[in-house]
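quick one
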Amino acid sequence: MALLDDIDEILIPADALAARVRELGEKISRDYEGKEPLLVAILTGAVLFVSDLIRRISIPCHLDFMATSAYGDGTESTGVVRILKDLNQPIEGRHVIIVDDIIDTGLTMDYLLETLKPRYPASLRVCGLLDKVSRRRRHVPIDYRGFEIPDKFVVGYGLDFGERYRNLPFICVLKSEVYGARPFADTAQPAPFSVR
Ligand code: IMP
Ligand code: MG
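structure w/ inosinic acid:
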């Protein structure tokens, strides 16, 4: 069965993503002129975003990755985040930009900020492609934001549901039968120890 059959609605088409990512890359290039920032992309969801973003950055920059897992009681995230893969390098004195696919409750990004701050970066900023602001449980300063989106579970352009749909070139909402009979609040929660 083709992936396209599962789609209910395209929220952000590929050309709109490309245009916005280009703007973000240009802004970062201006803001970090002479600074050689380190982009820290969060596996796995941010991989497509960061690979497009970095090609729109016109100043020298570096790229590293972290992987986190979050787990809760199955229905609500507890905010406990584990680091599955840490950075390959120290960040003391570096200008760090954390790049993620989506800021939902904000628990993951809040944890990442609290984890990286004590490592004495020269600066620490957040770049999020999507912002589901209505679900926020922790205040997270998003310095570079792609799009604010409604409270819907989205997939595509790196974001998955059950590890599927990352390869769709746009951001979309799936048909309700694909998510199953579970209400949205459940589908928004990752399985225990899932790599986000
Ligand atoms: P937060 O800790 O609740 O902000 O969630 C952050 C992570 O949850 C993101 O990096 C995503 O991997 C995942 N996530 C949150 N909302 C969605 C969604 O609508 N679709 C796919 N993944 C999501
Ligand atoms: Mg993620």
